[in-house]
């Protein structure tokens, strides 16, 4: 039988396929070498020495581990574009509100009605509900497995089985933002945590906090939300309670846990610094909320409330407060009469909003 010659086009195709196959094999070999190299880097490093003419392993050292970079997820404020909002003080917080506490005059506002997670600012509402309940403050509460953080898996210095008074739990929750202490406070409320959360939301409605909603007593859930305007109301209400004022502004405290002293400090560096006149404060952070800070302070003979939400860096919320204080110190004293609490400030929301400016400058046309 006669053999037919293959067409030239087939020969060319076959040649190309062979070359392609060779390239793939070469690439596969390179990949294999890279994988082998990576495995070699990950394997222990051996130190070999000659003993009696023989190569002997005298030591084995662990290879350095290369940690992969995992970028943090954006906060809700960043996802909403609020961090693009410009303001006259170049603050790094997406949301800011400064009010005269005595007159309710808004001195500065930036996205004040944006509803965002508030993290441990939630603990101010926790404190209000605890104080309203008038439960025995010297009653011993026990930290249990139920107080474990299953939301963010954060750590706590209060081990399971720790027993502290309700007073000490409240102090640690406000001063050091101790999550298990706040959880124990809610759990030991009549009716348990569900009843406590219900009381938190009723208190919010009572205070006129229409933008707020709470789901736990420690603020670890991103479903605890509020606005700067609402939080100004919360600060004013909490400020009226001398116990909350004292506990939230205490720079440090020591408790005895399992027979050993345990030292706690305030989460607010402005309180620890000692050069601020702060009447009430609370910090907060979870990734969805960013860095948060609320304060009542006295600046230039004026009682003011400051709210900063979704600040970019760990220290920027304190830098924003310092920048606002510096601006207030250079403002003339006003004799404004008390006015109703603002319910709908005249501010356009959104990125690069030209109305996110100093209110006093707006009134003077600058």
In short:
The protein has helices at residues 8-42, 76-79, 122-133, 166-175, 179-187, 192-206, 228-239, 242-248, 269-273, 316-329, 359-363; strands at residues 45-51, 54-61, 93-100, 106-110, 116-117, 140-142, 163-165, 225-226, 252-257, 260-265, 278-286, 290-299, 302-311.
Spell out the blueprint of helices and strands.
Elements (H helix, E strand, L loop, with lengths): L7 H35 L2 E7 L2 E8 L14 H4 L13 E8 L5 E5 L5 E2 L4 H12 L6 E3 L20 E3 H10 L3 H9 L4 H15 L18 E2 L1 H12 L2 H7 L3 E6 L2 E6 L3 H5 L4 E9 L3 E10 L2 E10 L4 H14 L29 H5 L3
Antiparallel strand pairs: 1-2, 3-4, 3-13, 5-8, 6-7, 9-10, 11-12, 12-13
Helix pairs in contact: 3-6, 3-7, 4-5
Q: What are the key terms here?
A:
366 residues; alpha+beta; single chain; disordered N terminus; disordered C terminus; Beta-lactamase; 11 helices; two-stranded antiparallel sheet; 35% helix
Provide a descriptive summary of the structure in words.
This protein has 11 helices and 13 strands. It has about 375 residues and is of the alpha+beta class. It has a single domain, classed as Beta-lactamase. Strand 9 (about 250-255) and strand 10 form a beta hairpin. The termini are far apart.
């Amino acid at each position: 039988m006669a053999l037919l010659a293959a067409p030239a086009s087939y020969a060319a195709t076959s040649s190309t396929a062979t070359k392609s196959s060779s390239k793939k094999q070469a690439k596969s070999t390179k990949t294999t070498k890279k994988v082998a190299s990576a495995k070699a880097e990950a394997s222990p490093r051996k130190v070999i020495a000659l003993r009696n003419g023989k190569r002997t392993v005298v030591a084995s050292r662990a290879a350095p581990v290369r940690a992969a970079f995992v970028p943090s997820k954006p906060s809700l404020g960043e996802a909403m574009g609020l961090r693009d909002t410009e303001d006259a003080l170049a603050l790094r917080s997406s949301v800011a509100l400064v009010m005269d506490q005595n007159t309710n005059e808004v001195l500065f506002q930036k996205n004040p009605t944006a509803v965002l997670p508030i993290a441990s600012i939630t603990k101010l509402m926790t404190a209000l509900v605890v104080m309203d309940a008038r439960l025995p403050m010297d009653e011993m509460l026990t930290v249990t497995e139920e107080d474990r953080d299953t939301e963010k898996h954060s750590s706590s210095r209060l081990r399971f089985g720790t027993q502290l008074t309700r007073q000490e739990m409240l102090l640690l929750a406000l001063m050091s933002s101790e999550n298990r202490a706040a959880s124990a406070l809610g759990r030991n409320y009549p009716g348990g945590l569900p009843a406590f959360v219900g009381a938190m939301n009723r208190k919010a409605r009572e205070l006129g906090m229409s933008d707020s909603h709470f789901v736990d007593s420690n603020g670890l859930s991103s479903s605890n939300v509020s606005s700067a305007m609402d939080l100004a109301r919360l600060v004013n209400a909490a400020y009226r309670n001398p116990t909350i004022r004292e506990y939230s502004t205490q720079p440090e405290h020591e408790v005895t846990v399992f027979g050993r002293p345990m030292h706690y400090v305030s989460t607010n560096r402005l309180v620890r610094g000692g050069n601020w006149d702060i009447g009430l404060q609370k910090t907060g952070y979870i990734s969805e909320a960013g860095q948060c800070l609320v304060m009542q302070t006295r600046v230039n003979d004026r009682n003011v409330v400051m709210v900063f939400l979704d600040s970019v860096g760990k220290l920027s919320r304190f830098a924003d407060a310092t920048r606002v204080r510096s601006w207030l110190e250079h403002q003339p004293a006003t004799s404004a009469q008390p006015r109703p609490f603002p319910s709908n400030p005249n501010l356009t929301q959104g990125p690069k909003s030209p109305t996110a400016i100093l209110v006093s400058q707006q009134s003077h046309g600058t």
